[in-house]
Amino acid sequence: MTASARSHSLVGNVLTPSGWLRGRIVFNDHIEVVEGEPLDQQQQENQLPNNGDLYVLPGFIDLHVHGGGGRDVMEGGDAARTIAKMHARHGTTSMLATTMTAPSAEIEKALTAVGPVCREHISLGARVLGVHLEGPYINSGKLGAQPSNVRVAVMDELYRYHAMAPIRVLTLAPEITGHLDAIRAISAMGVRVQVGHTAGSYEDSVAALEAGAAGFTHLFNAMTGLHHREPGAVGAALAHAEYAELIPDLRHVHPGAMRAAFRTIPRLFAVTDSTAAAGMPDGEYRLGSNTVTKCLGAVRLSDGTIAGSALTMDQALRNLVQSVGLRIEDASRRLSFYPAEYLNLKDRGRLEQGAWADVVVVDRELKVVTVFGEGECLWAR
């Protein structure tokens, strides 16, 4: 049971797995009642139902979070708690703390701090479901904003990391010798392997999927691009992937490229790839061992390379609906249901009886009104 044992009731346009209901949900830490009448056909067909009621959506699940509120996961200490609280104010109710490529001692410092956080309820914060290990098993030719401490995956090292904090997702470059075998072993641990930070070919990515890789990390970014004679990792994702993550901050990927990906990858889901700069004013922040600068909403290294983002999931929702043109229910699935499904979470990412009471209420402008995580009010406007 969470800190909140009091029953809550929310009314409005409730997005259920089977569609919109104009009604209410009742919940403690889990959802007890979902009831109401389906919206009429015209309202169902609108990009945004416009009957004047608020929208009651599943809480957002972000599988790629480096930081927020001025803190970075690699700092260790209480950074993950601060990050979880900042993102909760923007509708994120579950997240993966994401590491950077670094020497083993620095990764262990971060994981040692995150491990206990994964086992606790953070008051006023998102649930930290585990870790996304982004690197160090990547290609030095596709670092993006990652530091250069790359190395070949060694299972003994991974088992040690996994014992410190539960690794749920791992980014890896499949073209490196030995990494196809590593994908098989890592997948057998129950970890979702993603192709990313890769200079590999289309064939390398297809081989990775055949070996058990499940998705692609920040699609289009830090990977070989699509050319009609050399399809690259992007071509493999578009042709074969069921899942991939995408950063919809309108800086990492053009809306037209997003639309192409949404048409071809059935369960493409949104992540923020957020840094310590998320929720903070313009200025300098840490991203692992690198210094990054936030200016006019973008986060970059000193040479101009995009370095993660300042995105929050509520802004991702607005971008997907208002700039990319998705219907709100489609955008919601890509922020909640598909990430939960990807991690095989049957009790999150959906508003139905028995699921955790992870709920975000937004208004007509898709601005957050209220956020509940496991029945606790995490934020209210």
TrEMBL record:
Q: Name one Pfam family in it.
A: Amidohydro_1
- Gene3D superfamilies xref list: Metal-dependent hydrolases, Urease, subunit C, domain 1
Q: Which UniProt keyword terms apply here?
A: Carbohydrate metabolism, Hydrolase, Metal-binding
Q: What class of enzyme is it?
A: hydrolase
- As recorded in UniProt, its EC number(s) are 3.5.1.25
Q: Which domain of life is it from?
A: Bacteria
Q: Which NCBIfam families match?
A: nagA
Q: Which family does it belong to?
A: Belongs to the metallo-dependent hydrolases superfamily. NagA family.
Protein name according to UniProt? N-acetylglucosamine-6-phosphate deacetylase
Q: What is the lineage of its organism?
A: Bacteria, Pseudomonadati, Myxococcota, Myxococcia, Myxococcales
Q: Gene encoding this polypeptide?
A: nagA
